[in-house]
Amino acid sequence: MSDSIRFACTGCGKCCTGHHVPLTLAEAGQWARAGGQVIVLVEGFMADGLGMPPEQRDHVLRRSHPVPCGTGELRVSVTFAAFNPGRCRNLDADDLCTIYESRPLVCRIYPAEINPHLPLRPEGKDCPAEAWEQGPELIHGGLLQDAELRGLIEASRQADREDIANKVAICQALGITTSALKGNGFTAWLPDMGAFASALEAVSVDNPAQWQVHVVDGELAGSLQGHGLQTTAQTPVYYAFIGF
């Protein structure tokens, strides 16, 4: 990451096209009530082992929740995201956001990163070159300059921590109990939105379910099984496995 990065949005709409936008639990409810589709992305890890990036330990533990898996314990992280395989449903003909004043936190934070371990890299963003050649300094001396933006990032991280138990409970109510291993991939689910809305209204964190980990690599599966975790390599029917 450069010590100094300038940024000013050009209104090209590229960041609103072809991206699944992570949502807080409250935002997921708003998105569902407005007729949008939510995609659920799940990854898991062992607290002191496989899938745990040691340098990110505090961050990933805070945004994860323990679930029973075989005879062991898996910690899962769940992302509810606005499903946008093409243009966002809220873009108008001029590529302007029609819900700008109430847009999700992640949209307000862009192009900054929420994960404290991910540096901002302009080359990894969809914005045109001129967006990085104008506007105020976003980064100076390697530090984010905008105090309001820093507050939004912290609000997003806090929501991740506060929402995770309920997100896991909602997943279990929907039959979403297969995770991928963090660093190896995600499981991706497109729940029926009527069932999703009902689960949001009747969240119960007191009904733990058995989970399993989708792993196609036999050696990795053996390592997980050696720690008591339940794995599967069957071709999924109700979800997609997005491997890295």
Give a written overview of the molecule.
This is YkgJ family cysteine cluster protein. With 244 residues, this protein is α+β, with helices and mostly antiparallel strands. It has one domain (4-243). Helices cover 27% and strands 22% of the residues. It is built from six helices and twelve strands. The protein has helices spanning 25-33, 57-62, 105-109, 147-173, 193-201, 218-226, and strands at 4-6, 21-23, 38-45, 65-69, 72-82, 137-140, 143-144, 178-181, 185-189, 212-214, 231-232, 240-243. Strands 2, 3, 4, 5, 8, 9, 10, 11 and 12 form a nine-stranded mixed sheet that branches. β10 (212-214), α6 (218-226) and β11 (231-232) form a beta-alpha-beta unit. It is globular. It starts with a strand and ends with a strand.
- Domain count: the total is 1
Question: Structural class of the helices, strands and pairings?
Answer: alpha+beta
> What does the oligomeric state look like here?
single chain
Number of helices: 6
Report how far the terminal alpha carbons are from each other. 23 Å
- Uncertain parts: none
Query: What is the typical, i.e. mean, pLDDT?
Result: 95
Radius of gyration: 19 Å
Give helix % range. 25-40%
For the sheet with most strands, the description reads: 9 strands, mixed
**Percent of residues in beta strands:** 15-25%
Query: Total number of β-strand segments?
Result: 12
Helices and strands, in order, run as: EEHEHEEHEEHEEHEHEE
Shape: globular
InterPro entries: Puta_zinc/iron-chelating_dom (IPR005358)
Protein name: YkgJ family cysteine cluster protein
